[in-house]
Amino acid sequence: MNYITGIHHITAIAGSAQQNIDFYTGILGLRLVKKTINFDAPDVYHFYFGDELGRPGTVFTTFPFTGARKGVKGTGELTYTAFSIPKDSLGFWQDRLKKFGITVSDIHTRFGEKLIRFEDHDGMGIELVANDRDDRAGWPYGHIPAAHSIKGFYGATLNLKAKELTEQLLTRHMNYKLIGQEGDRYRYGTEGRPGDIVDIVLDKTGNRGMQSAGTVHHIAFRTANTLTQLGIQEILMQNGYQVTEVRDRNYFKSIYFREPGGVLFEIATDEPGFAIDEDEAHLGELLKLPEWAEPSRKRIEAALTPVTLNLEKYA
């Protein structure tokens, strides 16, 4: 049984909550599909940005801590999150990012596909990879043409001092296989398609990264349901990984463990999704709380800085 089918979501630490929403909805055109709280730190927002319904494989999530200092990229971290865009859209995105004052790289070629790199307002590393292998529709949010909209994740880059143990984890226990190498970059995939790519970049002499605003907190991999999740949990535990109990995140169920290179991994179920407590047409409009936090809603809302969608500023 293939317990893992690709990337489910990637979660980052951010600074300003409003700047965070403006960047990912306004500039990148991802839909804010859920506005809730960090279940482990209820006085902090948890935003989910994705396609129209926040389908697994499209959802970039953030914990915005107002006033947080910037983190430092280094080893033991996920340093670049890559999104998939249509093959002929790089010029559109270069122009759009420059329009809003974002420094963007020249076009690079990697494993035969072209991409650009840039950072968000907190220094988060982002790549847009142009390709014709992605049949997902994306989500234009009304101010980005559908022909150029982001389709979801392409992949993620892990910056590690060594690859052997992480490679063993991916290829022996997580349904991944090595599919290519370019210099110090090693590429893995379940099928090698946009949405399941994981690259390891070797940085044997690099300094350890420091998590704070602008760094990734964890990467979550997809599994179909709670049955397959228990299956991968058993496999990981039998092979010596310190895996958590199953935790209910309302919109999916999760287990966590740290891979040998230091990056926090999560295995999240595709079920039940983000429409369980909001109508699909109104996802992300209200602050949604888990049942256990509802008695504290007044206190929680008072501690959170109000945020708004400002799509008209980014037409």
List the helices and strands and how they pair.
Blueprint: E1 7-14, H1 17-27, E2 31-38, E3 41-50, E4 59-64, E5 77-86, H2 90-99, E6 108-110, E7 113-119, E8 125-131, E9 152-160, H3 164-173, E10 177-182, E11 185-189, E12 197-202, E13 215-223, H4 226-238, E14 247-248, E15 253-258, E16 264-269, H5 297-303
Parallel strand pairs: 1-4, 5-8, 9-12, 13-16
Antiparallel strand pairs: 1-13, 2-3, 3-4, 5-9, 6-7, 7-8, 10-11, 11-12, 14-15, 15-16
Biggest sheet descriptor? 8 strands, mixed
Q: Residue share in helices?
A: 10-25%
What is the mean pLDDT? 96
Number of helical regions: 5
Please state the CA-atom Rg, rounded to the nearest Å: 18 Å
- Form type: globular
Distance between the termini: 45 Å
Give the strand tally. Answer: 16
Structural class: alpha+beta
Oligomer: single chain
Roughly what fraction of the amino acids lie in strands?
25-35%
When the domains are counted, the total is 1
InterPro entries: Extradiol_RC_dioxygenase, Glyas_Bleomycin-R_OHBP_Dase, Glyas_Fos-R_dOase_dom, VOC_core
Protein name: Diguanylate cyclase
Organism: Algoriphagus sanaruensis
Domain VOC: 6-131, 152-270
